[in-house]
Amino acid sequence: MATLIPSLGSARFDSRGELRLAERLKDFLEDNTLVWHNLPVGPFGRHPDFVVLNPQQGLVVLEVKDWRLDSVVGASKLDVTLLTPQGEVRAENPFEQVRSYMFNVMNTLRRDPLLVFEAGRFKGKPVLPFGHGVVFTNITRRQYEATDLDEVFPAERCIFRDEMTESSEPDRFRERVWKMVSPRLGPALSVPQIDRIRALLFPEVRVRQIALPFDTPEPNPSPLADRILDVMDLQQELLARNLGEGHRIVRGVAGSGKTLILAFRAEHLARAASRPVLVLCYANGIAGRLENAMQDRGVEDRVIVSTFHAWCWQMLRTYDIPAPSERDLPDYGARLAAGVAAVIDAVARGLIPGGQYDAVLIDEAHDFEPQWLELAAQMVNPDTKSLLIVYDDAQAIYKGRSRPVWRQLGIEAAGRTTVLKLNYRNTSQILRFACKFAADVLGAPGVCAGEEEAILLPEDAGRQGPEPEVRRCVDFNAEAHAIAEWLGRRQAAGYQWGQMALLYPEHEIGRRFEKVLVKHGIPVDVAKHNRNRIQADKDAVRLLSMHTAKGLEFPCVAIGGLGALASEALEDDVRLTYVAITRATHEAFLSYSHLTPLVERLVA
Questions:
Q1: How far apart are the first and last CA of the chain?
Q2: Quick one: how far is CA 482 from the chain centroid?
Q3: Would you put residue 342 in left (φ > 0), alpha (ψ -120 to 50) or beta?
Q4: Left if phi > 0, otherwise alpha if psi is -120 to 50, otherwise beta: which for 491?
Q5: What is the rounded (10 degree) CA torsion for 130, 133, 135, 141?
Q6: Which H or E run contains 544?
Q7: CA nearest 305: which of 317, 316, 294?
Q8: What value, to the nearest 5°, has the Cα angle with vertex 208 and ends 50 and 528?
């Protein structure tokens, strides 16, 4: 059974014939076959009806026509004359149309050296067989053979109604599909080649567009690895394309691609929206990352990305509602809470209108208070009801957050929740280390989000790397020197400074670390926020608080000053440290100079 993207339940078909063909392709083609339906392809966004890819057989582009034989009154190699209720009309010959689609696809793929022969008698030719064909869903082969249409509709590139019924022989159907492609000149496609094809034909599945706040190459890449693109896996792509309408909830472990899916969804909704799309986060770092993603995808004028509190303040200014001042409330946290309360009250009294956005998407929703989620849900256009919430209870690091009961907030979660358990971000060694450290906290029994299961534990995706290193030092300055030496070794191993981050629990500790790194000649970039955007445009080690780093990731991460985490709420400190450790995609270094209950867990 082939994989249909989007799935049958989520795809939009222009005709019953397209739906029938989709069912046959899904049911009759080989298990390792991918079938994309009616998606924009390549840089020019052409829309072939179906693109079919199989590692052994190659790639075929199919066009579907629901024409009846008595409606075809004339045909040439260039066009077809059809009898319609409005009279005779001319349409492009479908074989010219689908042939054009095929060359558009192949020209897109030929640009990549991994997808053409680099030497030998086939140098410059595509490594995959390719072809094209037309499916006539209301004409039988016997009807076709009784005409002279074979002069302009080549028989070997046609599939007819009687060859695509539920009772058709699957082997015979597969033979007709793959007979349309050219002979295979080399070995079957590898997994990296298939991922490369996906990334080139459908750029929206590329991870590197949003996975990092900067785009840098791997250190010391192999001849093959330096040409491999990171792409969403098929589960992530299917989820992103199949989310459907209305309220949707995505629970996912750290590194499962929650933010990637949210960004994909925001872009998709924005392109069809008549009102703005709102993306809300708690932390500035995540907001900056998503704002960058929307700019990369060309929808920044349709998507508003904001932290929740910044959005509340914007609502107060926009609708001329008095905002709490620093003079009235000197405490910053109290002032934020008062601003939120003012917005909630203004919405209840009709001073701020609801339904302002065609869609609202909330990232890292485990950091939101339930009443914040209720407020955000009220901002969704009632005609679209498009609300997406993604969260992971294991990363809830802010004190006092209560778990939401969705139905009490007017959010429809029953039957609309998807779970992502596979961690793609971290190596097996980093993930195993983090989970062992926090096992009793993450695996604690309990109920999440009202009716849902206990806290999710991540499953390993199998990426390998070195074990995290833990170092005991005499004081914070010694920690800083040890971290500087480790960062220097990473740079000597081929990583760029911009691929590294240093995380710390308190800003004062961060300032100490910064001074020592500068003495070692290491370029540093202390996180500064400008309109929710982390400034990451230079090759320098990013210095971030452990809270600020939430939602970001870096190949190499050092975490210092862990002995300063000695609050009474040990579980909160464990969660914060777990989040910090899982920011590292390749290598991690942890240091401490004070023995505390948290550190004892770390070295146990």
A1: 48
A2: 36
A3: alpha
A4: alpha
A5: -120
A6: strand 541-545
A7: 294
A8: 145
Q: Which residue is associated with the tokens 């920044």?
A: 300
Question: What is the tens place of the pLDDT at every residue in 95-125?
Answer: 999 999 999 999 989 888 889 998 888 888 9
Give the span between the Cα atoms of 94 and 370, in whole angstroms.
54
DSSP assigned state of 448:
B
The C-alpha atoms of residue 365 and residue 72 are separated, in whole angstroms, by: 56
Domains 234-459 and 469-603 belong to one CATH topology = yes
Tokens of 63: 């066009």
Residue with tokens 């709490």: 324
Show the low-confidence residues of the chain (pLDDT under 70): 43-44, 207-230, 393-405, 413, 443-457, 461, 527-537
Question: C-alpha angle 567/573/574, rounded to 5°?
Answer: 140
Domain boundaries of the chain, sorted by first residue:
3-201, 234-459, 469-603
**Pairwise CA distance, residues 512 & 550, whole Å:** 21
**234-459: in CATH 3.20.20.70:** no
Q: Closest by alpha carbon to 312, among 338, 291, 331, 330?
A: 338
User: In the structure encoding, which two tokens stand for residue 230, read together?
Assistant: 């990171």
Q: Mind listing the pLDDT tens digit for each residue in 551-598? A: 788 999 999 999 999 777 888 899 899 989 999 999 999 999 999 999
What is the helix (H) or strand (E) element at residue 248, kind and residue range?
A: strand 247-252
In angstroms, the CA 75 to CA 79 distance is 6
Q: What does the alpha-carbon distance between residue 34 and residue 3 come to, in Å, rounded to a whole number?
A: 5
Contact 362, 368 (CB under 8 A): yes
**Fold for domain 469-603?**
Rossmann fold (3.40.50)
Q: Determine which helix (DSSP H) or strand (DSSP E) holds 51, and give its type and residue range.
A: strand 50-54
At position 181, the amino acid (one-letter code) is: V
Record the tokens describing residue 66, joined without a space. Answer: 């629901």
Question: In which residue are the tokens 């139905």 written?
Answer: 407
Does the CA dihedral 528-532-537-539 come out positive or negative? positive
Which tens digit of pLDDT belongs to each residue from 21-79?
A: 999 999 999 999 999 999 888 766 788 999 999 999 999 999 999 999 999 999 999 99
What's 375-433 look like in SS3? HHHHCECCCCCEEEEEECHHHCCCCCCCCCCHHHHCCCCCCCEEEECEECCCCHHHHHH
